[in-house]
Design goal:
Length: 391
Amino acid sequence: MAPPRLLICCNSLAYFLNHRLAPAVLARREGFEVHVAAKADIDPAALSQHGITVHPIAIARHRLALLADLRAIFAVRRLVRALAPDAVHAITMKAALVTLAAAPRDAPARLIVTFPGLGRIFSDPRGPWPMLRRRIVMALLRIFFRRHAGALATFENAADRDTLVAANIIARDRTAVLRGTGIDLARFTPGPSGNGEEARPPSVLFAGRLLRQKGIAEFLHAARSYLRQRGERGWPPARFSVAGEPDSGNRDSIGKSELDALCAGTEIAFLGQVRDMPSLLRRTDILCLPTRYGEGLPRILLEAAACAVPAVASDVAGCREIVIDGETGRLVPPADAEALLAALGELIAAPELRQRMGRNARRHVEEGGFDEESIAAAFLALYRGGSRRRE
């Protein structure tokens, strides 16, 4: 008997490798033949060691691009017909639109769509074009989910699920909430003594894509304000760092000249892309994510919590899954510079509070079902056609 076949469609092989590999590896280990269709922005050989077959298909990430999207739709349709997969899993909003449009209506495959946040489509500022684009996307999703009556949608937080259910895009009983991509708790661990409090100024880190809606400008403004006012206000010393790079091709990405202007005359450290995040987080005392983006469940918050690092983050749906205000960190209103500065100042000045919140954060991740193995097993059950119920 031929093994069951799984096809995963997403925007980027790099994204898949860094964030979505574990369920595919588990499926492969459990007897599935696994295929991935995505833009080949890294060497496909990186996945061949896991026994995963790559099909390079370019899915435009950031925009509705008619010709490119039609090419992607026809490419995915040909692939679905050629492979005849038992399960098709589309990950990200754009991959969902392409895959739902491509999948033949009579295809027997189980269709699973994962929304890792609702993204820029739902978080852009109000205006004629963002509102029109949002309406177009919602109308297309509504049509596609009605066309594929058996398709299932998974979300990283309940608020995103409720948004699409309330918009009559998909019925609630065809949804599941799976909390992010999970975290390897054996790899992301606290430092030797909690988070290694030493005779040094506490370190505050922003890590992620350098997008305006991710809050990089707010973080830099807060860091600059703290460093400039520290002496006159008697605040304790602190070190501020940024890990990440601009997202090329994304109009929301902040440019080098703007970064330089925001940090002129300060000692904020730019680390670029960091390969070894566990080591960096073990040297970090506070993680800061003042995002306004349509987050699902921000992975950096999960990584920081696993390393017993408290966080200061925006009070938005995805962040609330990890940051419990006063327990594992601080939540502040989005785009509120004064509240962000005050929350950072509170944690910088209180090492015992940081340690307590860090321990709570690690416990929350351990006991809350955020581990990589649990999430991978939940997706495997969906690939097999098992239970959808997970909150």
